[in-house]
Structure formats: structure tokens, C-alpha cells
Amino acid sequence: MNAIARPALTCRPMTGEDLDAVWTIEQRIYAFPWTHGNLADSLLAGYRCTVMERDSQMIGYAVLALGAGEAHLLNLSIDATWQGKGYGTELLRHQIDLARAAAARIMLLEVRPSNEVARKLYRRFGFDQLTVRRGYYPDGKGREDALLLALRL
């Protein structure tokens, strides 16, 4: 029987040195990406910013705001090359673990109605829709709504 080596997958806190690589991924995968400043401000604000690496190569990141018993997942992104391989599931699981460790009772997030892949992921984890935020996201024709989802922790 041959042993198959599995790539080392790690999640670690994001640092200032990661910002350029995170921003590069952000620009590659979104038509309306966060700015470099948005990402830097997330670190400065003390949000739980996480980088996911596979064999020391950055493949994704997440930004989680914690406070008052709530966790707000602001960004969860996997680089295009690595999408569809289960890494988003692992990164979301890690964010839920961080929220639980911080004694959050609920996790909130916004998602585009047009992002069916993300919506399917969140449904698998048990997120429920609370409401619709009208005109939340920019899009090529003006604005797109956001679905506000929640997971009881």
C-alpha cells in the first residue's frame, strides 16, 4: 500500500506582510474588490484576519469581526485556482471555530443573491436568511442586494 502525501493546509493570523498577496487575490476574484486600505484597516481595527496556506502558498483569507456576542464574517475568499476543492469549507469551518472560541452566540454575513456557490456553502453549514439589504453591493448595472444570513452558534 502506498501512502499518498497530503499537502499541508494551515490557517494562521494575517500580518501586514500578507496584505499585498491578499489584495492580489482579492483583485483576481472580484469585479468589485476590497481596496488595499480596506484590508489594512481590518488589521488595524483588530478584526480576526486569517490567511489559509497550502504548502506555504497563500490560497485564501477571511476577515471576522467579533464583539458583543456576535461574529460578523466580512470576507471569506479562496483564490480562483483553488476554488471548488473544499478549501472554502475548511476556511469557513475555521472561522466558525474562532467565533465559538470567542464566545459568539451568532455569526452573521452578507452574500450576493447571484453568488450561488457561496450560498450553497452557507446552507450546508446551516445559515438561515434573516433579511435582504437592498442595494448593498456595487455591480455593473448599479447595485445588487445582499442576503443577510445568520448561524446560531
What would a concise description of this structure say?
The protein has 153 residues and is α+β, with helices and mostly antiparallel strands. Helices cover 29% and strands 40% of the residues.
Elements, N to C (H/E) = EHHEEEHEHEE
Question: Please, what is the average pLDDT?
Answer: 95
N→C terminal distance: 41 Å
Helix content: 25-40%
CATH homologous superfamily assignment of the domain at 9-109: Gcn5-related N-acetyltransferase (GNAT)
Described by the principal axes of the CA atoms, the overall outline is globular
Work out the number of β strands.
7
Strand order of the largest sheet: 1-2-3-4-5-7-6
Proportion of strand residues: 35-45%
Low-confidence stretches: none
Main pleated sheet? 7 strands, mixed
Number of continuous helical runs: 4
- The structural class is alpha+beta
Tell me the Rg in angstroms.
16 Å
CATH topology of the domain at 9-109: Aminopeptidase
CATH class of the domain at 9-109: Alpha Beta
